[in-house]
Amino acid sequence: MHTVHIPLIAAQQNQLLAALPTEDRDRWHCRMELVELSLNQVLYSTVRAPEYVYFPTTAIVSLMSTTRDGASAEVAVVGNDGVVGVSWLLGADYAATDAVVQSAGRAFRISAEFVKNEIEHSYGVMKVVMRYAQSVLGQIAQTAVCNRYHSIDQQLCRRLLTGLDRLSSDELDMTHELAANLLGVRREGVSMAAHKLQEAGLIRYSRGHIVVLDRERLEEKTCECYAASQKEYRRLQPVAMVA
User: Fold this and answer.
1) Which one, out of 43, 60, 63, 190, has a CA that is 20 to 30 A from the CA of 104?
2) Could you tell me the pTM of the whole model?
3) Residues 6+ away with beta carbon under 8 Å from 39
């Protein structure tokens, strides 16, 4: 993992950091490090408390739930909208999920103990983090419904859109194997769904790289879960605080 020191203004690349009261954000600056996160890097697991929490800027992190026999599925996604490790910040003794990088990129890394202390002593910080935590719970609930009742085609569309929402382009890296692991389905099902989308001219897929060609039609193809999650996130999205 490579560490990069950059100006405070770069913190605006993460929506949660940008929403912090100015006086708090300034205090955090000297404690933040910009780090490069690599694909499949495990930021924390269910067996140990993390030393740091991560505020992604260009990376995307999957919160994965794993069964005893090793099967897994993604229950929530964290990108430039939030923080990886919110359960620890709110006092949990252990996490219910693993946090795994599914799209390499950058994130701010900050001491988990420092942020927990900030939550305890700043109402502004607590309010921002609590609203984000509620949006994560909503995402987990919506994902559970989607995985139970909707087709693989619809689930894949939802997951592609969810990833794009946390990137600054219409492209993302995702192999069929990774998509199947995230959705908790067979790879063959994902391959068939991706083939349909490509044949319809919605995406272009090559060697694990996906380019979305028609986002509007992709949104039409997905289920109502995507729109519901977006509506809830916008309702709870932290509004920039005034110091």
Assistant:
1) 190
2) 0.88
3) 101, 102, 103, 104, 173
**What are the φ/ψ torsions at residue 204 (nearest 5 degrees)?**
-125, 125
**Contact indicator for 139, 76 with CB cutoff of 8 Å:** yes
Confidence grade of residue 4 (pLDDT, cut at 50, 70, 90): very low
Strands (DSSP E) found in 67-132: 72-78, 98-103, 105-111
The hierarchical CATH code for the domain 3-146 is 2.60.120.10
Q: What is the mean pLDDT of residues 27-36?
A: 91
What is the length of the chain?
Answer: 243
Fold of 151-222: Arc Repressor Mutant, subunit A (1.10.10)
Return the domain boundaries, the chain. Answer: 3-146, 151-222
Determine the distance from the C-alpha atom of residue 181 to the mean position of all C-alpha atoms in its chain, rounded to a whole number. Answer: 16
Place of tokens 């505020």: 55
Residue-wise pLDDT tens digits, 171-228: 999 999 999 999 999 999 999 999 999 999 999 999 889 999 999 999 999 999 999 9
Query: Average pLDDT of 94-109?
Result: 91
Answer for the pair 105, 172: CB distance below 8 angstroms, yes or no.
Answer: no
